[in-house]
Amino acid sequence: MALLLGVDTGGTYTDAVLIRDEKDVIATAKSLTTRADLAIGVGGAIRAVLEQSGCTAAEVSMAALSTTLATNALVEGQGGRVALVYIGFSEGDLDRHGLKEALKGDPSLVLAGGHNHAGGEATPLDVDALRSFLQTHAGGVSGFAVASVFATRNPAHELEAARIIGEMTQAPVTCSHQLSAKLNGPKRAVTAVLNARLIGMIDRLIGRAQDTLVDLGVTAPMMVVRGDGALMSAEQARARPIETILSGPAASIVGAHWMTGVENALVSDIGGTTTDVALIRDGKPAIDPAGARVGEFRTMVEAVAMRTTGLGGDSQVHMVTSGLQGGLELGPRRVVPISLIAAEAPEVVHAALDKQLSAPVVGEHDGKFVRAVIGMPAAGLGEREHALLGRIGTEVHSLGAVLRTRMEQGALNRLVDRGLVQVAGVTPSDASHVLGGVAAWDGAAAHKALTLLARRRVGSGDSLAADAETLAKMIVDQLTEQTALTLLESAFAEEDTDFAIPPAQLARHVLTQQGLASHRGILSLEVAMNIDVVGLGASAASYYPAVGERLKCRMLLPEHAGVANAIGAVVGRVTMRRSGSVTAPAEGKFRVHLEAGPQDFSASDEALSLLEQVLTAEACADAEAAGAEDIHVHVSRDIRTALVEAREVFVEATLTVEASGRPRVAKD
Fold first, then answer.
1. With a threshold of 0.90, does the pTM exceed it?
2. Reduced to 3 states, what is the DSSP secondary structure of residue 267?
3. Cβ–Cβ contacts within 10 Å for residue 437, how many?
4. Paired residues of 659 in beta bridges
5. Where are the alpha helices (H) located in 67-184, listed in sequence order?
6. Predicted pLDDT of residue 76
7. 515, exposed or middle or buried, with CB in 10 Å at 0-12, 13-18, 19+?
8. Quick check: 74 and 252 in contact, CB under 8 A?
9. What is the pLDDT of residues 519-555, one digit of tens each?
10. What is the number of alpha carbons within 13 Å of residue 218 lying toward its C-beta?
11. How far is CA 183 from the centre of its chain?
12. C-alpha distances in angstroms, 150 versus 121, 241, 290, 471, 610?
């Protein structure tokens, strides 16, 4: 009998689950995610699930890891400092597809070089300029991204630049052609930049998870969930961490289908940082043909078609100051709940909150705290950031005691973006503590923090809320409303009917909102979700019944909804895809674009046959390296032709080979 261990590392909790023979969940457990040393949270969850089940570590046949850390990092704008080498493009191309935003002020070099559409060298690579750039900017950079024009037609310049960077810096290098075989250089560059930014974070997670398994006596191989819900090896994930974006949410969809058996439903997974919504259609999650979108970035990573919103149980609560009535808005940034940080540093937090409550006026930073994330690399910081990080040290502080000038707010934001510092503030988790729905951490501290926030003045001069309980209800109601809007957007986006209005506008349209409220006047308006919704996440049972009532649909809350990601991690398959293209640069010539360079043939069948052989070998090798067995191969061909003088002419072909199999499990 196979004993499968699934682990999911989220922004707040690390979950673990044990499944026997892919049929029965025999134990589940949770442990707080420990950013400073992820092994502590991973180890805590695994130990707890083994103790609960009565099983030993040696009995585990396979371990699999899913994570929302990459997704959360992109949503929150976090990650290491990187450099981009941009070959054969112009400075103006940096503004396309959000590339400048993805760089976030990190260094970049626009370099002469690149190839043409047919794979021929357009301009020689400017090696001297590259070496000069590296001598100046290599310090303080955690990774490099390399993107060359038409690298998917000929990657020679990307490979040569990567060789030089590795030789001079020993830093990890991401080449854009290794992440996607599709055209669109700026979009591939964005994907490469984000991959380089995530390498350090995901490498630490996987490394510490593997160390923990060894320390506990688990000798079975460890797999990692990709963004499309398939499994890959830990080594593959370390090289291509960008493929783990939407890993956790993808695993949750696989888990949702396994737990409920639903063939058609919306799946909504609420975590500490994000809410992820996807559609199960005919029992399978759809793959986004345009590439995974996370936060503001559209990547070229194959992943489930999912809408990820910065909305979760630990979302920052913002007071809306415009208008007489004011109001609340949640997210997109995650903060540490006051109830949680008070449980970790009770004397500091309660002393500060008591002092703030006794003051006649609520201060700008009241009810907020700050702490450093110990052990994170702090290279490439400015003088102001260094000074602020040193002042924070290793203790928890009231935010007002740390920030001495308004100028330092920007420095704090940059430290938070780099993942070096965490801010604590009021969240929906705190509201749930105040309302009695949750009792995991320090409810008294949550009550004090909400009392402070409730005293703030809106435009009319009145207090935001009468008391902590009233404010807590407002926060939970706001979470319900924003979740309902997220689900409506997703539903409109998946509709076959074109309403000629963007989904975000349709969800908020007055007719939609009045229909949800069952307007009855001269007109009778009715709007409802015409599909089941599966609510997942540890807090789903607390928040989602009200969402189901708001959308007038059946809300399914599976028994193990809180560990759906961990379940999905071990019931998925290993699937590897490889794509390539054949072009026709001249009449009677058919060019196969390979990693080793272009090869020409006089017949299209010969070119397509060679490409299929190469891609099949690569996909099967990847699947075997990921630990798959009983591998099946599926080949799809997209051949484009044109009618020229009543004659059909070959233009271009794209082949995709998919190798899929069950993950290999250790035998007794």
1. no
2. strand
3. 15
4. 576, 633
5. 69-76, 99-103, 127-137, 156-169
6. 67
7. middle
8. no
9. 999 999 999 999 999 999 888 998 999 999 999 999 9
10. 27
11. 23
12. 10, 23, 19, 55, 21
